[in-house]
Amino acid sequence: MVTLRHGDARLIFDPALGNIPLWEVTGRKPLHAAPWRDEPEIQENHDIPLVNRCLAGDFLCAPFGLDDVEGDPIHGFPANSIWEPMAQDVAHAQFRLQARVRGAVIEKDLRLTGPVLYQTHRLSGGEGQITLAHHPMSHIAAGGRLSFSPKRAVLTDPMPQYEGRNLWALNQIQPDLLLPCEDGSDWDLHDYPAGHAVEDFVILAEARESRLGWTVLIREAEDDMLVVLKDPRVLPITMLWISNGGRDFSPWNGRHTGVLGIEDGIAAGGIGLAASTRENRLTTMGIPTCLTLGPTHLIRHAMVSLPRPPGWARVVDIQVGGAALTLTEASGETVSVPFDEGFFPV
Predict the structure, then answer these.
(1) For position 118, what pLDDT does the model report?
(2) What's the pLDDT score for residue 160?
(3) pTM: predicted TM-score of the whole model, two decimal places
(4) How far is 21 from 56, CA to CA, in rounded Å?
(5) How far apart are CA 1 and CA 88, in angstroms?
(6) 239-276 as b/e, with b when 16 or more CB fall inside 10 Å?
(7) What is the pLDDT of residues 7-34, one digit of tens each?
(8) DSSP 235
(9) Quick one: which H or E segment has residue 263?
(10) Burial, 321: exposed, middle or buried (Cβ in 10 Å; 0-12, 13-18, 19+)?
(11) What gap in Å lies between CA 176 and CA 235, rounded to an integer?
């Protein structure tokens, strides 16, 4: 394990498979780790992919989800194999993925600055097409509220994640955040479905001409905020994975509850790599669903952990400027934190 520290923030990175089992800021733990990570019977069962045996925090997926083209493990080698150290100091570390992804070299850069975690991945060379996504997960003990940068469409998967456990009606495309459910009711995507035993998935397509994509999770019991930031020109969709007791098979066994994945990526969703390389629902809207390897691709991603200001329920705007990240609540109140304004390209 590799540990980074900056002020009252601490991060643990596991180079054996490339995930972040712990990120802690002033006692807050914004990321989720699965309850079976320390269970010998699960860790010894190699029929379960390594990424699922050690499910935690955030990790890079390449490809995202199922590789039904060349048969790489689910979420690809970046989430299932060794990252070799290149350089490290107290708050900064660089790694190179030992395996090649379709011939591409992937390098990872992690940097802590106060409550901000910056991540950059560089993909160099290789051939063919690949999907890609970050996979941060948070645990919500007693409900939570979500806020988003403007979106142009919301899509549910054509097939359920797990038969009979989806809340939202399948194979729909909506222009806003109000989703029809299987029972005929409507669900506001600003609310986490805490009272429903479900396994569900939805795709949010970024608004045209967007320069900063963001998601804010406000957790009620934890009384905090997790801010997830991306460059939407590189990662044009945000996929929300709801895992709230809907899987009853090993290692989940109905105990994986209150989990939200905020998965910024370039993919056609959870329907496999092959579908992402063909024309699909997103490409017909002009939204790319895969990267073409060969040139260099830079994937920039950042997360911020903050206490929730009193009374805050919905963030309506986020701006980067003046060496700060500024969040605006629906009331008009703002909060700012120092932020590297050159991290995301203009």
Answers:
(1) 98
(2) 87
(3) 0.96
(4) 5
(5) 13
(6) bbbbbbbbbeeebbeeebbbbbbbbbbbbbbbbbbebb
(7) 999 999 999 999 999 999 999 999 999 9
(8) S
(9) strand 259-266
(10) exposed
(11) 20
At 43, phi and psi to the nearest 5?
-65, -25
Rounded to whole angstroms, how far apart are CA atoms 149 and 169? Answer: 23
Q: What is the pLDDT of residues 116-148, one digit of tens each?
A: 999 999 999 999 999 999 999 999 999 999 999
From the list 297, 123, 121, 285, the residue with the least C-alpha distance to 206 is 285
Phi and psi at 274, nearest 5°, equal -55, -45
Nearby residues of 184 by Cβ (< 8 Å), 6 or more positions away: none
CA max distance for the chain: 54
pLDDT lower than 70: segments of the chain: none
Instruction: DSSP letter for 191, please.
Output: B
DSSP for residue 167: S
CA-derived radius of gyration, the chain: 19
Summarize the chain as % helix, strand, coil (round to 5).
Answer: 5, 50, 45
- In the block, tokens 């010998």 appear at 40
Q: How far is CA 160 from CA 73, 240, 242, 268, in A?
A: 21, 14, 12, 15
Q: How many residues does the chain have?
A: 346
Give the Cα separation of 231 and 299 in Å (integer): 8
The CA distance from 331 to 241, in Å, is 29
Residue 195: beta bridge partners?
A: none
Please state which of the four CATH numbers 3.90.170.10, 2.70.98.10, 3.10.20.600, 3.30.420.40 is assigned to the domain occupying 2-338. Answer: 2.70.98.10
Q: How far apart are CA 270 and CA 22, in angstroms?
A: 26
Which residue blocks in the chain are alpha helix, DSSP H? 40-43, 50-53, 273-277
pLDDT of residue 195: 86
